[in-house]
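[job 4471] stage=fold_predict status=RUNNING
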Amino acid sequence: MNEQIIFYTQAYNAEQYLEKAIISILNQTYSNFLYYVVDDGSNDNTRDIIKKYAEIDPRIIPIYHNSNSYLNCYNETLKQIYTHKEANYFAFLDADDWYEPTFAEKGIQSLNDSNSDLYICGSIFESPTGEIVGARQWTLDKCEFSSHEVPDYFTHLHSFFRTCWAKIYRLPHLRDHQVTVPTTLPVGFDTGFFFQVLMHTKNFSLSSELLHHYLVDPTSTSYRYIPNRIDCDIELSHTTLSYLETINGNTAKNLFFCTLVNLHAFKDTFKVSLKAYHDNKITIEELKQLLSSSFLCEIKERIQQLSPSIIGGIEQIQNFRTEIVAYLLSEYIEKDNEIFFSILTEFVPSLSLFYEANDMEYFFSKKFTNRERLNYLLLSEKSALQRFLQYPIKDYNSFDTTLIGLLLLYCNNDFSIIIKRIEDYQTFSQKQIRYIISKQPILSKVNDSERLFYYPSLLLSLLKEDYKTITQELPNQIHSLSSTDPKTALVFAQIGSYTSALLSMEEYYIFFLKAELEFLYQLQRFTEANEKLEELLPFLPDDEELLQLQEKLKK
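[job 4471] inference complete, writing structure tokens
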């Protein structure tokens, strides 16, 4: 067992992790290898790292590109690798991943023992901080498969088919069929590559050992916006279905499973696109095209045909629908409501796959807590809620009818009754606080007005527009806070100046203005204090407190 294996790593701006990947190959207990390490036009220290190790170990074959060509680079390098007639095995390693030292030894031994075309091991998923966040591990007793056995185990095998890493291929097998990376798949090219291999694979083996480490990096291509990413989802879906057809595996169970995979792929694409809209301002039209994709219509048609015949099929779709709705409600974009309205008015009602009108019961079922519903309530715009309420809702026993009332109240901007009705949910997130502040005229005019949220009775009075009560209560609060929390006392004084002015309560108005001036001075905000003093003195030229403060400010 001394035939050569070729490893391949393609790196782009991978200086943070590449060294660990390279060392994991150099530390392999199976020493007969060549290692292609390609710098695909990096602008960091990636090239220097490759040069360093290429000088240390002659088994490393460095390749340097001056510009990034991504998928084309893979195929150019594969052509070179296929020229090595003496090598018999091949393995990919991503630039931010690494292998256990025995990966090659155990994999090649397994290939020879089983006479398989392909070896697959398990992967450990790790965060950039080193935390283990999951694993992909084979747990069934059966570990060797011929292609005609795949249909019966497809739902178990599929997750291992999604990447080209954590595998050892017979190189002559790849060379004979000239397997390349599909350049039409900037997202999911590894899945596309592997399914090409499967099309020509007669048998393969799996190991339960976790010999590959996969870095879960939120900056990787899988999590980035790429124009027309939905086309990748469509191509991968058709690739999978074509493979199933070649092995007579297109049973109702497998087709339904593929449909669920398609749903989750679409959800990921939608999430990435929605985030890109928020961060980079891609066009709303592009998102709307995504929402009305024919791919979704195709999925919907398959679900309607298949789910009734699959045990638990309808429940799985319902759970996914609930997951989608929960995601939509949690991803409200505060400043860019247009796309959120588009989701509610176009995506949700028109594509009944996710949320039919009569499925409103799911939103109000015990699958959601009242806190989750109220989070949505407090973050939604009036117009969105009005549209939301147009759906026909029946009085099911499974949901809280008081929430319907709260939605209606909120559409009428009756903050006071809402706050009163949800006293058990008095803790607000910062986003909710900002939203309420933006909708309440006085709060929106006062800096640091979120401090009022620690005083529920005062907040309630203000939201109820009971300005007389809050005006009369604030002086006592200001006195009690004057020495311990002048910042909050200042906020209360500013709120009081607005409420007393609205009510023409002159005595209170003067008190609040003078209190505001005193706290500005106490907090050493002297410029603002002088400006406030210049406003007050013309109206109270003989006021001793103001004159004393004027002397202090001169110093």
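[job 4471] summary: Confidence is low (pLDDT under 50) at residues 344-366, 377-411, 421-427.
[job 4471] exit 0
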